Amino acid sequence: MSGIYDAARAYALAFSYRDIPAEVDALLGWAQSVSDRPVASVLELAAGPADHARALADHSGVHPDVVTADMCDFAIDKRFDLAVTMIDSISHILSEERLDAHFRCVASHLTTSGCYIFEASHPRDSLDDQALTQTEWRQSGDDEAVTLSWGQPADVTDPQTGITAVTVTVDYRRDGHDPVLIRDVVPQRTWRREDILA
Length: 198
Prior knowledge:
This protein is of the alpha/beta class and 198 residues long. The chain folds into two domains: 4-8 and 124-190, no CATH class; 17-118, Rossmann fold (3-Layer(aba) Sandwich), CATH 3.40.50. The protein has helices at 8-14, 20-35, 51-60, 96-107, 193-197, and strands at 42-45, 80-85, 110-118, 136-140, 144-150, 163-174, 180-189. The chain starts with 7 loop residues before the first helix and ends with a helix.
């Protein structure tokens, strides 16, 4: 059985509901408001299908470089005006020590006035409150469709570590191909504001 991140086509389709150009415009605007100058270089971490990086490249006409590395311990011979981590990918960092290493590593790759923007779930976005979070959805394309479920009410959170074993299921159908059915358990941690500030 493969994992959710092995099903790249299904994953890309499942998250295709996002308005990437609008998100990129917002990211660039926020970063410029912090640095008081236009953003000339961007690092997208935990990029998955790299939708934001590709849209940013379209803005600038620059071909993006791809690096495979640990998001808490990487070295790139370049500094960036903006670093971004989207779609709650920061939740894959599971300990305070690793979060600290992540922030330090990102900081070492920023220009003097650079900034880091990450998108994270709010602690209240729990499976217990379905009004706040949509955990199952369907997306379709010309000849394909995917149903994705991210989390189940029975998923257990360890009270000591704050890590939840999140059940993820994918049902991907493409005309002329066998269906792809995946059930995966992904450890995740929702970071509280106090943890991030610490």
